[in-house]
Specification:
It is a single chain. The N terminus is likely disordered. The protein contains eight helices and seven strands; from the N terminus they run αβαβαβαββααβαβα. It is globular. The chain has a single domain, classed as Rossmann fold (3-Layer(aba) Sandwich). The chain has a seven-stranded parallel sheet, with helices on both faces. With about 240 residues, the chain is of the alpha/beta class.
Amino acid sequence: MHQTFDAALGINLLHANQEGANHNRAHFDEWGITCFNVMSSPGAGKTVLLEQTLAALSNKVKIAVIEGDMTTELDADRLRKYGVPVIAINTGRSCHLDSKMVAGGLHQLEHHYNPSEFDLVLVENVGNLVCPAEFEVGEHAKVALLSLTEGEDKPLKYPVMFQEADCLLITKMDLAPHLDVDVNRIVANVRQMNPDVTIIPVSAKTGEGLEAWFDWICSQIEQEFLSEQQLSVTH
């Protein structure tokens, strides 16, 4: 059976993107950097979560941010207030960051800083529940956010995002008393898509769950460091 032109084009695009992602990942590994690809729909709370993360960890962990938005540097400017390098990428009409865009961000980071001094790169992807999950950027882990205000059905309606996630943050938990939403049903729907994903309910407003999120970050960095150490010993 012959593929349609659109289907073949999509496969070719994903293949080319994966090659670029592998190249980015090689750079991250060479520099000893752990990279997270942070994804969600618009308004789920990515930027405020990163603000809280930078405020809590930037004195302990050397962090840089690659900030993706279709237009403006509004979110990038918010994060720059925490004194970390923030590289803004405007995607124009594209609904996601791809590996080539992130490679451009890495070249900027390498031009202005010594990348091997960093422990963590946080890639804040464009707000979208579909495309970002399809295009890897070289990350070591995918982090998805789902706000309570989005309802219980999103993991079933947009399965790829949740199937691909290594960590899911259920955000805006402070609104739970005011919404007709069953958090347990959200968790069950996510588990139906991805039984092994780490799920952390959080509220950037009250601080609920943030320590668990910070602990997960640090455990991932330590895990990647140990993996690199083992590789260097075997080679």
